[in-house]
Amino acid sequence: MVWLFGALGLVILLFSGDFLVRGAVNVSLRLGIPALIVSLTIVAFGTSAPEMIISIQGILDNAPGLALGNAVGSNTANVLLVLGVPALISRLHTAEFDTRKSYVSMVGASIIFILLCGLGPITWVHGSILLMLLGLIIADQVRAAIVHRRTASIDDVEGADLEMPGWKIGVFLGLGVIGLPLGANLFVDAAVEIAQDFGVSDSAIGLTLVAFGTSLPELATTVMAAARRQADVAIGNVIGSNLFNLLAIIGVASFFGPIPVPRAFLVFDLWVMLGASLLLIPFVFPPKWDLTRRWGTLLCLLYIVYIIMVVQHG
Description:
mainly alpha; A middle domain of Talin 1
């Protein structure tokens, strides 16, 4: 039954996050907030809401390892699994777009995050630094988009529907606000019980089960992008998600209680996360390589090996 409750909690989380995005986006557009700002902030935060609620709930339930494990494990899964699986489906041509600036921001954020973990436990002071860094990155993205006039149209914003009636927006917001904490409670309680039953730490559960579950939306997005041969969407989705996982989720969660950093993270998991990010260098900087099935196989195998090592030592 515990696995059933965990799966139910995850399903509620994912649907609630989608409902919250749809409601918040349409309220914001009706208030006159530009589509670009909505895309870079509200949609990004909304799609990360399940991970954020899980992290906060983990801290409140005295299982802070879920918070850190969720963020670090999700970033590793995003590169190795979320890009690996789509590459198995279709070759991703990376030469057609430029993600160098966002990629450098992601790697820089990862290095700063590792340094802060070395000064752990992560407190609201560290969280404030992460959130300020996120604010600078978003401000720079907005500035660059305005300068180059690459503003997002309303049709490009996830969940946007200018014909959606007000009552439906209210229902989406209500379902999102109610469903997120409900799903998080079910999922976190189940994850902690599973960890206790198997004799592994909440950090290991966060790195594996929780990270995999919360990476499913990103995986679905990149699989669809691969099917449509939209490599920019696939890699851009991973970079954006990784930035928010470290800066927004841990940044906000740290205000609900200190997050201890286990020694295993300092000597292994954080460096695996950074190493996985560095694997993207050949696909981001010229001469750019395509993400082929061979690369997809390698990335997926590396993820499987990592999960086995985490479980064995968890």
